[in-house]
Structures are given as structure tokens and as C-alpha cells.
Amino acid sequence: MHEVHATTLPNGLQVLIQESHAAPVATFWVWYRVGSRNEPSGYTGISHWVEHMLFKGTPAHPSGTLTRLIDRLGGRWNAFTWKDYTAYFEVMPVEHIGVAVRLEADRMQNTIFDPEVVANERTVIISEREGAENYPAYYLREEVEALAFKAHPYRQPVIGWKGDLRAITRDDLYHHYRTYYHPSNAIAVAVGDFDPGQVAALITEAFGPVAPGDPIPAVRAEEPEQEGERRVVLRRPGGATALLQMAFHVPRAGHPDLPALLVLDGILSGFKGVVPFDGGTGGRSSRLYRALVDGGLATEVGSGLTPSVDPTLFRIGATARSGVAAGALEAAVNREIARLHDEPADSAEMARVKRQAQAQFVYLRDGVFRRAMSLGMFEAVEWPQTTQALIESVEGVSSVEVTRVARTYLSDRRCTVGHYLPEDGPEGGVAEVVS
Amino acid sequence: MTPPIAAGQVVRTVLPNGLTCLVMPSPDSGAVAIHGFVKAGAIFDRDRPGMARFVGSTLMRGTARRSGPQLAEDLDGIGAGLAVASGLETVVLSGKSLADDAPALLDAAAEVLAEPSFPDDEVERVRGELITSAHVNSLDTRQTSERIFRRVAYPTGHPHSHNPDGDESVLASLTPEDLRAFHAEQLRPEAAAVVLVGDVDPGRATDLVAASFVRWPARGAWAIPGFPAPHAPSGILREESVLPGKSQADLVLGAHGVARTDPDYYAVMLANLLLGQLGMMGRIGENVRERQGMAYYAYSDLRAGLLAGPWWVRAGVHPSNLERAIAAIIHEIEQLQRDGPAGDELADARTYLVGSLAVRLETNQGIAQTLADIELFGLGLDYIERYPEIIGSISREAIVEAIRRFPTEGYTLAIAGPQREG
Questions:
Q1: Would an 8 Å CB–CB cutoff place B291 in contact with chain A?
Q2: Which of A10, A243, B205, B347 is the right S-S partner for B200, CB 3.0 to 4.6 Å?
């Protein structure tokens, strides 16, 4: 794999560039250090809404022409907002990568916040939220997060509370945009079939003249240590089967216990990549799958943690088989946690998880998209570690360390438990033939 | 520009048992991707909806050589992934491994397709999972609107009329013997193809596939069963289901589409692209989402397979906006039917389809899946090389004619969502 060229422009923009010659394509990303973590009470969802607005045009790229421009060149583009970051990307035939670079530099500074467009987007985002509300698992996740954190903004949903979505104004959005969208709060990432020097020149030309911007407001909230188990039971119609979600407080990205926690997660449900949305390859030989799915209690079970700027959550979730109670799922998970506390993983199991980790890191090389995503994510959560160094840290984790982190972090005192219990059935259908 | 898949790069071999094998090298990735299909999906369920799904879901749960847990442990032990999904027309197998582990991955894939054992305890476990999944989907608004659409738009007995989850009574009653019989009858190497793309020499890769899949005995000719032809309704067939505890209503508005091998396929595909996909979900997205702010998603989709599937518009809206959204969708279809593509809209669609090939085919998985489709629909190994010419040859008139096939006065409308006020 080619080396990553890391530089910082005089205006503070961090730039990461890596060559990849497997296919004649390139990807360009801009990551902003802003997400629901940066949202004060009453303004939840504002970062995600600003993300939507960045697709609405600038004076140079008026509304509607942006998408057409990318389509016409055979590219694809999108964006996503998370607690710690908002990321924008294009994947293009390599000869058009300059278009993506110039477009991102333009919309970093010149996005139009037209009041009428803002009004339309309000209802689009409320519709996005209501689509999620159709799933009880979504409500349960909101309840568990809001309970697990009492001081830190990680308690807030990324999409925002509906009341805030109804109240946020055009000027609030514009202010949020001006506060967080500037070079000194951003990371540009390019991976593709290009000469890195040429792409660096394109980025410098497009972003170099942009004013650096003021330092962003600090997030001061610190989550106090949890003093005892927290529990929420959600009863509402809409679901057919019980759900379990458990969340344990764990440290931030870059903490020395992270590699051991990733191995612990691998033992519980298979090793996953650290790239957002990665699910790993298997995990059907993992402890949770064996105990809950092979054990006939659940149809699905999983665990994981998202490396984060501030201390975050290690999550375990399961969907009950029809007729199985949430309490039975929880008891089975607790038996597996007790096993982790009491006996070290044997060498075959440790070897299996580490082999999964090695394979995940090789799979990361397939395609420019995921490679760029991992580079940007590590930087955005201030995890000063290369992929190679992370592989080596994971290699070095011993079963003794896994036991230690299991005892430290998977404890009742750090745990929030959520049960979803279905209520009522369908009300039956009404059929009519109109004409 | 070099096409991402050129006929000269792909080695296609038909093995003695009738299995088609396609391999393409992708140096330096360090990994391989596998993608395979068997024409053994729900289309073969006949009067037992859920049969193919049950069989497909149980293939990974034990083989003549390994128990399910052992197979899982072996795959996890090399960091490989292998999954089987059973669809309407095909059972699809996909997976990946490190390049050095390609033989082990192929062995597992061959065992799963050729020698599943359907152990009693695993069959019971899968039964519970499938029935639970059917219960969950019965309260899912998107799934429910699709189920209603299928039941109303297609005659009983037509493969597209079935509940994709299967019938609960069928799932509850099938025995391991039933599953074995379906496997023996339908999972034939002659009806299958396996594609391997990755960091291996193509000659060696073909040998590896042949060595693994030699255990799959030839079974001879087969045919897709007959079924009643669907008829276009003379009016609008509308059916709604009220589900408790929901915020949003999901709708499916559609008609009968075309098969992937239909001569008109490309014209209809392009018409659909303009209608509900290009840019932010085409003209429908532009109206329903961008101009009226009614929905997070509103798009159209053409399900063209071995059989002609639905051509439908799907959207999720607040219940109070349902009628306005439906009117906007019909308005956009009628306008495109009346006026045809505007300005450079069609040129944009063409350059998008051709220009995006490189991006769509940048990963091993993407290439493997595309090669599998090329084989499934008999498109020819030079398909990607010919693609720009194919797209360029579809006239504006053909596209206008294709969009006019969408029956705005005789369609099916299925809705699932919360109780509406008033």
C-alpha cells in the first residue's frame, strides 16, 4: 500500500492523500469536526440539517445543478452526520477529481440558506425522523442513549428531537454553518489513481484562499462516573418481538485500552473493521451468536463500539425469537459477560479473532471509498494511530488484557439496560377498490 | 478509456457437471471475492411459498462434511465471510477471503451449495428465525405495503404475488425431508454459476473452482414452472393497512414492468432513471422531496429479472400528506409521458450510465456481482465494452414510448401506516 501524505495548509486545513492504482477512480472527502456532540439543548439535529443544506447550492453551483454535475461526470456523492463529525464525499472517474475538490471548497464557504428551501427541508428531515420512528429499535436506542449519558451531548439523537426540528430557524442554521465550516475545523482526504503531488496542488489551489475561521466552541461537558445500573423498559405498539439493548461506558478513541476492547468485541460477536458502518464478515462462531442464536433465544445479536472523540458506549443488542422475553436475552448476555470476567479466552479463540482482524484490514484495501473513510475517521476522532499501528496493537493484545478490560468496563455500574416489549397487534386492514 | 471489465480479462469455463465458472484477476488486492447464483429461488416454490427461502436459509447450517458451528468456526478462523440469501429467482451466495484462503472459501461454498445436510436441530432453529422474521415484517410498514402490492397486482400463483417471507403455515410445516427434496430437485450445477474475482492467477482460480465443485453431481435439464399471466387492472386498485404505533405511511404505487431480457428493457430502464432515480431520485424526488418537502424518500424502481417484475414508485410520507404525494407522483409520470425528456436530461442520463461504470465497478465485490448478472441474463462477456453503444442506441422516441407504458389510470396502490385522523 502507498504511504499517506499528511500536510496542513497555512489556513489550518488538514490534508491526507494516498495513491491507489487498482481502478481509474478517485474519491475526495471533507470531514468537519461537528456533529450532535456540538449541539446545545434546543438545537439538536442542527448539524444534520446543515448537512442537508449543503446540497442546496451556492451562487457558482445553483440549486439543482450540483447533482446533475456529478451525475453527468459518472460520479456518486453523498454525506453523513454522526455525533463527532459530518463528512462529505465524491467518488469520481479519476480525471474529474478536480471538480469534486472545487465543489467542496465552494460549498464550504458559499452555501445559500434560502428561507423557502430551509422550510421545505424541515419537513423532509421530520419525515426522515418519522421513518425511523416506525421501528421500535429506534425508540429504544434513543431511550438508552438518553439514559446512559446525563451530562454529555452524546445523549442526543443525531437527527434531533422533533420539537427542536420544528423550532430551529434559518438564521440558527446559517450561524451553525459559519461557526463550524472553515478550513481550520476540517480534514480533506483524497485517495485514488492519481499523482499525489498533482492532487495536493488542486487542493491547495481550491482551499488555500479560504479564510481559516475562528476556533470552534469547546465542548466542556464531561460525563460523571456512573454510580449504578440504569434501566429503561419501553412498552409501545409497533413491534412484534422483544428487543434488548445494553450499553457500557468505555473510553475515547486513542485510549490504550481500545485495542483490547476491539478484541473483546471480536470474541463476543466477531471482529469488525473500525470504519463507520462496517459489519465484519462473520461472527457466527462468536460467543454471543452461539449463546443467543444457536441457543434458540434470538434471531440476531451483535455488539460494537464506534471510536469517538469523548468517552463513548460499548453496545450489545439482540432481537428475541417470537415468544422469548427480553429478560431471557439479558440473562444469556450476562452469563457470557461473567464468563469473560472469570476465565481467559483460549489461544484458539484469540487466534481466530486476530485472524479476522488481519483480514478486515486487508479488505479495507478493496476500493478507494472505504480507505478514505478510515483515514478521515481516525483523524476526525483524534485517534493518532495509523491502520498499520492499530493492526500491531490488536496483534499484541493478550487474553489477560481481555479479561482485565472485560472486568473494568463490562460491569453493572457502567451499564444501561433497555428492554422493548411489544404491545397490541395490528388493527387489521381496510380494503377498497376506488375505480 | 479501458473498460473495467473486458472480455479478454475474463476466463469463462463450463465444468463437466454443467456449472459455469467465471474468473477475473484483480492484482494487489490481497483478497478474493466470490459471487454465485443458482436459479432456485421462490419462483420454484409452487404451492408452498417460503420453501426456497427456508432451504436457502438452512444451507449454511451444516453439510455432509461439517456441522453448522464447525463451518462457522472454520470461516471465522480465516477471517472469511460467506453468506447465502434466497430471493425470488435465485439463491445467491457471496463471500470474501484473503487470497491465500481462496481454496478454503471455495470448498465451503461448494459444500454449502452441493452437500447441505439439513440437520433436524438446525432446521428447527431456522424455522423459529423465519417465523419471527415474518412476524416482525408483518408490523413493518415498508414490508407490509410491498406485500399488499404483490397480492393485489399479481394473480394468485404468480411468483411475484407471494409474500417474500413465505406463508407462516408453510414455514411451520416443512420437514427436513421436504427441504432435502427441494435441494435435490432445484439446486443443480446446470442452473448455477460461480464467479471469483481477486488476487489470484485466472488459470489457477479456475482449477480451484473445478476442484471444489467437482462434488456437485450433474442433474440434467430443468425448467421454470408455468404460472398465470398478470393482467393490467382497468382501474386503480387501492388497499391500505393500518398498523399501530407508526408515525409514517409508506406507499407503493406501481404496475407490471419488463424482464431483463426484454428487447425494450433499456428503454424502460432509461425512462425509469429519469422518472425516479437520476440525481436526487429523478423527477419524482424533485417534486415530492425537493419542491414540496413531503418525504425523505420518493423514488421509482424497475425490478427486471428473469421474469418481468414490478415497476413501482415508493415513498414514505406523513399520513396527512398521502393524497398530495400520490397526486404529485401521478403528475410527474403524466408530464413525462406528455412532454418527454426535457433539454439535456436524456444526454445527462446517458453520460451518467456510461461514465459511472468505473465507479460502480471499483471493488472486487462489485465486479463479481456484475459478472454474475452478465452470466444470469446471457449478456456476453463483452457486455461492458458494448455498454456505451447500447445506451447510445436507445432513441428518445423509444424512451417516451416506454414511459407511456406506465398505466396512470390502471395501477395498484398499496399503503401501510398509522390510523389517519378525520
A1: yes
A2: B205
Q: Can you list the residues of chain B whose pLDDT is less than 50?
A: none
Residue of B nearest to A273 (CA): B79
Whether residues A307 and A387 share a domain: the answer is: yes
Cα–Cα distances (Å) from B92 to A88, A119, B153, B161, B373, in that order, read 33, 44, 26, 21, 11
Report the candidate in A11, A336, A30 with the shortest Cα–Cα distance to residue A184. A11
In tens, the pLDDT along B53-104 reads 999 999 999 999 999 999 999 999 999 999 999 999 999 999 999 999 999 9
Q: By C-alpha distance, which of B256, B267, B350, B353 is closest to B305?
A: B256
From B348, which residue of chain A is nearest by alpha-carbon distance?
A72
Are A175 and A308 members of one domain? no
* Contact residues, A window 16-55, toward B, CB-based 8 Å cutoff: 22-25, 55
How many other CB atoms are found less than 10 A from the CB of residue A382?
A: 14
Q: Which amino acid is at B288?
A: V
Tell me which chain A residue has its CA closest to the CA of residue B81. Answer: A281
Shortest CA gap A417–chain B (Å):
22
pLDDT attached to residue A278 = 67
A199 & A240 share domain:
no
Q: For residue A67, give the CATH number of its domain.
A: 3.30.830.10
Closest of B35, B78, B73, B41 to residue B57, by C-alpha: B41
Q: Which three cell numbers, joined as nine digits, stand for B99?
A: 487470497
Are residues A255 and A363 located together in one domain of the fold? yes
Q: Residue A425 pLDDT > 50, yes or no? A: no
pTM summary value: 0.95
pLDDT value at residue A279: 66
Residues 139-198 on B with a CB inside 8 Å of A are 139-142, 148
* CB-based burial label for A212 (10 Å; 0-12, 13-18, 19+): middle
Q: Quote the strand ranges of A46-160, DSSP E.
A: 76-81, 86-93
Does the CB of B362 have a partner CB in chain A at under 8 Å?
Answer: yes
pLDDT at position B422: 58
Work out the percent of chain A whose per-residue pLDDT is above 70.
Answer: 96
CA angle A141, A145, A150 (to 5 degrees): 160
Q: Residue A53 belongs to what domain range? A: 4-207
Question: A247 in helix, strand or coil?
Answer: strand
CB A112 within 8 A of CB A84: no
- pLDDT tens digits for B304-331? 999 999 999 999 999 999 999 999 999 9
Q: Do A296 and B291 touch (CB under 8 A)?
A: no
Instruction: Indicate if the pLDDT at residue A424 is higher than 80.
Output: no
Total tally of structural domains belonging to chain A = 2
